[in-house]
Amino acid sequence: LVLWILLVHPAPQPLCFSNALPFTSSAPKLLTQPHFSFTTYSLWPSGLRLASSWLSRKSPAMQRTFTILILLAYGLSQLVEGDLVSSHVFSNHKGGCGKTTILFHTSCEYALRHPEEKVLVIDSTLRGDLSELLLGGDTGAAGKQAVKAVGHLRSTTKLMMQAAAVHAAQSVHAPGSELTEAVSKLLTSKETGRSSLDLESHLVPCSDFNDKVPENLFLCPGGTGPQAAFPQPQRGPIVQTIRQALESHPDKWKVMMDTDGDQGFSDYTKIALALCDNCIIPLKTNVNDFSNRCVPMLEELWLQREQGEARARVQLVVW
C-alpha cells in the first residue's frame, strides 16, 4: 500500500502526523503536544529510498513482476475520475481574525489555478459574510441581495438536513417492506438507483452572480436564516453522507469551510471539523487572543478528536 501511494501519486501532498515517526534519522521533533503538531513533512524521498532498497534485494523476475503490477495499478487508477482532492476548515474561537477573508481569497485563487477541479465552499456561519463576498461583495449590496434570493432554495442548513434524511432512509432496511420502498423512492438517485445525497442541488455557481470569480467555484450558502440544532447522534451520519457524496461524485472536488468565531464550537462547526481533514487557524499576533481564544479552541478540538467526533488536524496557523 505504501509503495502504491509513493509510485502512483508523483506529487503527493505533505503528510501531517500526530507523532514523529522514525522513517529518517532526521525526523523533525514535535514542538507541541501530539494532536497539535504544526510540523509538516513528506515521506516521499525516504519512502522511495526504502522501496528501491527493498526491491534491489529481490530477484530480477520478482522485480519485473512488481514493476508490471505497479504499472497496472497506475493504469487502473487513471480510470477513476472522481475524487475528494482535499478538505480544509478555517476555524478559531476568535471572531475577526481573518478566517472569512483568507478563505475568500484562497478559494478564488485555487479555483483560478486549478480549472480542472471544482472548488466547493461551504459557509457554515450564521451571518454568511463569505457567501456575500462570493456572490457579489459590498458594491450595491449585491452579495447580500444574492444571498437573500438564493437562501430560500439552497443553503448549508438544507444540505445538512437532507444528508440526515438520506442517512435515515438508508438505515431503514427491511426487505420487502412497503414503507422502505416508499421512502427510498423519495431519495433515490436516477444515476445510482439507490438513496443518495444530490450534492449539486444544494450548490450555487458563484460566477452566475459574480463574474469576477472563476466558473469552477461553487458555494453552499450560509447566513440564510436561523441555524438548526444537530445533536451528536445526527452529526456523524451527516458527515458520512456528505463525504460519500463528494468521494463518489464523477468530478474532483476541493472543499473549504468557513466557521463562526464563537467561544465554543457550534453544531455547524463540529460538523465542519468532522467533515474536513485539515484545519487552518488564522490568528492575530495578540497574546490575549492566543491565550483566551486560540488555546481553548485547540483544547476543544483535541477533546473532539479524543471522542472520535472530529477528523480535522491542525495543518497551519496563519499569523
Describe this structure in words.
There is one protein chain. Helix content is 44%, strand content 12%. The chain is an alpha/beta fold and 319 residues long. A 7-stranded mixed sheet has the order 3-4-2-5-1-6-7, sandwiched between helices. Helix 11 links the parallel strand 6 (278-282) and strand 7. Helix 1 (2-8) packs across helix 2, helix 7 crosses helix 9 and helix 9 runs parallel beside helix 10 (267-275). Residues 8-44 and 77-81 have low confidence and may be disordered.
Brief write-up:
The protein is α/β, with parallel strands linked by helices. Helix content is 44%, strand content 12%. Helix 7 (156-171) packs across helix 9.
Topology, pairings included?
Elements: H1 2-8, H2 44-56, H3 60-77, E1 83-90, H4 99-113, E2 118-123, H5 129-134, H6 142-150, H7 156-171, H8 178-187, E3 204-205, E4 217-220, H9 232-247, E5 252-258, H10 267-275, E6 278-282, H11 287-306, E7 313-318
Helix pairs in contact: 1-2, 7-9, 9-10
